[in-house]
Write a structure and sequence with these properties.
8-stranded antiparallel sheet, 25 strands, elongated
């Protein structure tokens, strides 16, 4: 992902953290804010992150500290007061901004987890002359009649061309391509169409079984982007209009938070949000079927146009990560 991280820029994510949830606290001199400590860990591995830049932004002169080998950074509240705005930067990780309001007579030890989106990348298809999964997870595809075409940068044989009738790609069923009852997920797709779909559906991605519908489908429903999710509790469907086809490449991302929102991003910015938790999303959505790209082999569900750089993440991507995906490779 991110071209082996060579082009990844620092990302920014706002996160409000109250130290009421700190691991522990011990008393100190009354009326003072003593030295306190961040411990910063990788969310995926649980290991400490050495070299995270912790910057105190709301004081003058400013203050910054780099975490040590244990992932710790200490700050002295006596020098700055008891209301802090910290920013955490670490290459290839989602940056964070933390607003901390701490009590004047306590020492705090707060553990913070930072996320590297690569750790949650489950499948990635660049279509550079093959159907290989470049995530390293081994979800390679099998081509069913599709051809290769130039990508958005003009590179030959670096995107997928589908005829809108019988072409598609299949990927064998695997546990990592299912999301169970609780896993958040995101799906990033580049597409290019010169005209609207004439058939009812044009799937970007589909992994589902019927009677009852279980799993997920994501793609076009006539002139709308549509997501259909089926679990053991019921179904959730969220179509939303898309701009008319214009023979240009566009980036569309689906983000599903099982306890929160469903979001569409279009060309790097939030396009539509369906807020609030849906009880049906709490069911098990595992489907014992292949993952299909571009259709199912039937003309009624076939996407007509070009697809590229499809990525599936087992996490809910933030605004900043989606923005970075849109500008990947210098777009």
């Amino acid at each position: 992902m991110f071209d082996n991280l060579k082009s990844l820029r620092l990302l920014t994510l706002s996160l409000i953290v109250l130290l009421a949830s700190c691991k522990s606290s011990t008393p100190s001199d009354s009326g003072k804010t003593p030295v306190s400590t961040f411990t910063i860990l990788d969310k995926y591995t649980g290991k400490p992150l050495q070299g995270v830049m912790v910057t105190l932004a709301n004081v003058s002169p400013g203050w910054s500290k780099v975490t040590d080998v244990n992932g710790d950074a200490k700050y002295d509240g006596n020098a700055f007061g008891n209301y802090f705005v910290f920013t955490l930067y670490y290459p290839h990780y989602i940056s964070q901004k933390l607003t901390l309001d701490i009590f004047s007579d306590k020492t705090f030890y707060d553990t913070i987890f930072m996320v590297n989106p690569n750790d949650f990348l489950e499948a990635a298809y660049r279509f550079s002359g093959s159907m290989t999964d470049s995530s390293g997870r081994g979800h390679d595809g099998i081509n069913h009649g599709s051809s290769f075409t130039a990508d958005r940068f003009g590179n030959a044989s670096s995107a997928l061309q589908l005829n809108g009738t019988t072409n598609y790609v299949s990927i064998p069923d695997a546990s990592g391509l299912n999301f169970g009852k609780t896993t958040d997920f995101s799906m990033s797709v580049w597409y290019n169409q010169s005209s609207s779909q004439s058939n009812p559906f044009g799937y970007y991605l589909n992994k589902s079984t019927s009677a009852p519908f279980t799993g997920y489908s994501y793609g076009l429903e006539a002139t709308q982007v549509g997501t259909h999710l089926g679990t053991t509790f019921g179904e959730v469907s969220h179509p939303y209009p898309l701009p008319s086809p214009d023979s240009r490449w566009h980036h569309i991302v689906l983000v599903v938070s099982r306890l929160g929102n469903i979001q569409y991003y279009f060309d790097g910015v939030l396009y539509k949000e369906f807020p609030g938790s849906d009880h049906n999303l709490q069911g098990n959505m595992d489907a014992s079927s292949d993952l299909l790209i571009g259709g199912t082999g039937s003309a009624s569900s076939a996407f007509r146009g070009k697809l590229d750089d499809i990525q599936i993440f087992r996490t809910a991507l933030s605004d900043s990560v989606v923005f970075q995906l849109y500008h990947e490779k210098g777009w």
